Amino acid sequence: xxxxxxxxxxxxxxxxxxxxxxxxxxxxxxxxxxxxxxxxxxxxxxxxxxxxxxxxxxxxxxxxxxxxxxxxxxxxxxxxxxxxxxxxxxxxxxxxxxxxxxxxxxxxxxxxxxxxxxxxxxxxxxxxxxxxxxx
Length: 135
Fold this sequence. Notes:
By secondary structure, the protein is of the alpha+beta class. It has 4 helices and 4 strands; from the N terminus they run H-E-H-E-H-E-E-H.
C-alpha cells in the first residue's frame, strides 16, 4: 500500500486502513499497539505506513461495522469457500475472509471494485485507480 501511496502522492487518492482481529486473531492489541506493531515488529524496522489508520473494528458478524456492510453489499466476494481461521459469527456469503482484502471507492463514495488479499502488486490496482482518477 505504501508503494501506491507514494505513486499517487500528488493525486486525489487516499488509503484507509481498518485493523481487525477476526482473521487468525492476528490483531489482538489495542489501537496504539497495532500501529507500534507495524512500525517495530511486522514489518518493523521503523516502517511508517502511508495510510490513515482507523480504530480496530469488526468487518463481519454480529458487530460488523456498517461501512463494511455497505461495501460488501456493493461488490462481489473474492472467496468461494470459508476459511477455518475466522473468528466471528454468523458466517455469511460475501464476508471478508482475510486481512488485506481491499475495496476501491470512487470520489462520490460508490464502491468500484473489491480485491482478494493475494492481490499485493501495486500495478494490479493501477488501471482501476487511474480509471477513477480520470473519470
